[in-house]
Amino acid sequence: MRTSYYPLLLNQVRTRLSGDKLRCALLSLLFCCSLLVGQNVLAQFGSDLGKQAVSSLAWADISSHYKNNETMATIGLTTDGRVYTWGANLFFTIHANRNGTSTTLENSYQVTPYKVLVPGNEAVKKVRMTIYEGATYNYANTFFCLTASGKMCAWGINAGLVGTVAGWTLGTPPSYSDTTRAKRSPVPLTILGESEFVDFDVAKNSYYWVAIGASGKAYHIGDGGAVNTTTFGEISKPTGADASFKYTNVWVGKVNTALPNIYLKGNDGKIYYTGGMGSVHATGVPSLFPLPTPPTLTANETNGKVTLIAPREVPFPAGEDIIDIKVAKLDNYATSFAIAASGKAYAAGVWRISKRYIDAAYTKPEAYYTNYVLAPLKTVPTATDEFKRNPTGTDSLFYLNKFVEMAMPPGATKIMDIMWGREFGSDYHTATLVAGDNGKVYWTGKNDTRIQNTIYAGNFLSLVNFQGEKAIGEVGEFADDCKDVLSANSISRYSWTYEAVNYAGAKKLIKSGSSIAEQFFVISQSGRGYVVGQLAANAGLGKTSYGNDGTSSYFTFFPVPIANELLLSCNTSPGTGGPLGDPAPAAGTIDCSKTQLYPAPVQGTPSKLSLLVTVNVTTAGLFSPITVSGSGMSLPAGFSSLTVAATGVQTLHIPINYDGSTLTNAFQFTIGQAGSCAADLTKESKKAIVDVWTLECVPSVGPMLKK
């Protein structure tokens, strides 16, 4: 938020309130703005002392979890495929002896991104981490990544989640000072004979996960009805699937009394659900919806034994390609979301709620009623898609028993990401954030501080725009208008009404806190990373300050940049960084006389070619832009630059699409700062004789080279 926005806020307050209410609201707003100015100025302009604490890395994704000073860790993936970890270095899972001793837990924190050495220095395409919140596993961190070539890797503590791996001790270390059981670099996994994978997913605070092999089979390990706790088991295919069926993608949710909840995508384009199938509300599977008539389930379906039950289809509109699912915990108050390649979003589970509260803590008889919307819908849901629950007269919950299309945020043509507050019933904040392709973020739901009497419960959501609907029927202690400025809610059922102005420019919204311990990450459209909420080590701010007492000294309401990975002097392999991951411009000179097209284009026959360009590289880096034109030649979609790692005379291979057009003398190409060349393609191509090695395979011996 810029300072020019403050007069607008003040004017809005002035037009809505008067007298004592106005003075009260202004005091609250000025307090909020003072916090905003103090933090945002530093965030934007840095300090005049020391190295600027802003990461130079462009983030593609972040997976993180925070609960307390032990249960917190983060893994980040850059846009060029590098991996970094930070947070609580319990059992020295990030690197050994972080604080110089092997016995002290209190100082074992990694407060800035630390580069992970991936086998073969491969690029990585997906990362996840998990911390099981149970004393049995002593809050052990386990990290996961999937490389571009399909290697499924894990590291950290093997509390059973990676099965039996040679040289990796199974089980929880007896104490935090045990440095012998943790793996600090990714270990490639082989799962039931497969060593190449296409996707995986791990919930941030659960004891199970799923990997999909190149064969299309899905594998589960962890709490699944106590069937595959420390060994992998294959998840069944949907009923009626033929031999050609393969799983291609997976999304995993939070554990609920040892019951997993998993969504799988098939090569038929359909989505399937498996896991706990009893008393569920947010799966989006109408046949599993328990009210008004409970479905007939087998014992294995009730117990969520995913290796023994057939996944059920999750209905979506025909032709809709689902690319992301925000999986809610199996809870009566939860909401799940799905995002399609078309940019449409869908919600299942609770979409709006009316609730009656009684302030038992203050022993006062007053009650107040509130209502709010967690998922604004595109249109009014049909009677067959919605069910209203009204137990004991205390609240009314409106459920969607299938995924129903949501409203599009103002000005957006696509929904890029969703962060949901009501992930499960113990969450105190109940707001939903949505990021559109126009860079704007909107919120809906309820940001309530009054019941818990803490700063938590989502104040960082409502403070970004104080406007909202007041609770209905507030009396006594709850009628304080100052608190209402901080505790707005939205009752807009079919539109996104309130913009979260402090998050404008966001591309991804990643929840990392749970229940009371609120925290989330924001990745901007440029790739810059920020954190909101708890100032813990897993925030990556170059400092740590955590606490559970609700005081503002441990909390930030506004986005703060992830700290520079180079601040840590012992990080010996931080990566090149650069301006958000982009290498410096390259320099060189093209030798146009040595340019070749291979194979030679045949007029009238569309084909794929390679443009071979000889360049004397004087400065390694990025050649951009790369262009081609004329004679029906074009570059593949998304190809516009090329990185060169070394200097000297090099041959660059540029992929070309030829559409079969008439070949002319007007073919041209440009290689960034190295210059451009033109060529006459009407001349006859030259034949070339090349000495080639061929491989002749002998079954009993293997491949032999034959000239």
Helical run tally: 5
CA-atom Rg in angstroms: 28 Å
Shape: globular
Oligomer description? single chain
Distance N to C terminus: 69 Å
Helix content: under 10%
Overall mean pLDDT: 77
Major sheet: 6 strands, antiparallel
Protein structure class: mainly beta
- Topology, number of strands: 42
How much of the sequence lies in strands comes to 35-45%
Low confidence ranges: 1-47, 362-367, 449-485, 548-553, 572-579, 700-707
Descriptive notes:
The protein is mainly beta and 707 residues long. Among the domains are: 3-45; 327-511, no CATH class; 587-679, Immunoglobulin-like (Sandwich). It has five helices and 42 strands. Strands 17, 18, 19, 20, 21 and 22 form a six-stranded antiparallel beta sheet that branches. Helix 1 (6-16) packs antiparallel against helix 2 (19-45). The longest helix has 27 residues, at 19-45. It is globular. The chain starts with 5 loop residues before the first helix and ends with a strand.
